[in-house]
Amino acid sequence: MLSLRLDPDIERRLDRLAQRTGRTKSYYARELIESNLEDLEDRYLAEARLEKRLPSLTSRQVRKELGLES
Fold first, then answer.
1. What's the pTM value of the predicted model, to 2 decimals?
2. What is the gyration radius of the CA atoms in the chain, in angstroms?
3. Host domain of residue 22
4. Total domains present in the chain
5. In-domain check, residue 70
């Protein structure tokens, strides 16, 4: 379960979209989260790594970490 507060303008836009399409606001919120979560993870995990000043990884280390090479 997730509860969040939206800017009133965003809420109105979401309401209109839901009414015009016959779908729920939850449907569109879920779609947005699912389609953007991977990009958010990449961004914020990279920023966290930079903030911690951890050493950089080589492309080979990244491929190995992702299971793309043994």
1. 0.63
2. 19
3. 8-65
4. 1
5. no
